[in-house]
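From the methods appendix. Each design record in this collection lists the tokenized structure first, followed by the designed amino acid sequence. Records were kept in a plain field format so they could be parsed without special tools. The example shown here is representative of the layout used throughout.

RECORD:
FOLD TOKENS (134 positions):
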């Protein structure tokens, strides 16, 4: 990063979580769980169609618009702008470039991740969860 990392206060975490989920849903990403902590975020989301029988992602020909990194970049940009507008963060960016991604391998992996994200609330993260009703 070109500048020191940002630590988000509680109000900023809530706003970032709401804006990022809203931006992803606008782009037709199915968000199941999402959390924003003081310095990072996690998402359990479906970016592309899934073959329900085999848990494999259905190949989409030349559809770079569905790339998770691109869509998360949009969500990060929208949240950073909103945090700046509300004076909850300095202008110029909040999140580091890029994002890691891990595809869900099977139902067991899904269950593990499903428990992992809401547990971040215990550590002070703002959490959006369809699966746990928070």
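DESIGN:
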């Amino acid at each position: 990063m070109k500048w020191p990392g940002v630590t988000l206060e509680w109000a900023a975490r809530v706003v970032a979580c709401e804006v990022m989920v809203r931006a992803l849903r606008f782009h037709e990403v199915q968000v199941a769980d999402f959390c924003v902590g003081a310095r990072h975020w996690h998402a359990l989301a479906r970016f592309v169609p899934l073959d329900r029988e085999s848990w494999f992602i259905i190949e989409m020909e030349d559809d770079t618009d569905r790339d998770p990194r691109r869509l998360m970049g949009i969500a990060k940009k929208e949240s950073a702008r909103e945090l700046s507008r509300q004076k909850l963060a300095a202008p110029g960016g909040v999140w580091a470039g890029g994002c890691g991604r891990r595809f869900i391998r099977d139902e067991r992996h899904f269950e593990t991740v499903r428990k992992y994200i809401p547990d971040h609330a215990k550590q002070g993260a703002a959490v959006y969860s369809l699966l746990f009703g928070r």
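APPENDIX NOTE: Helices lie at 10-26, 68-85, 107-116.
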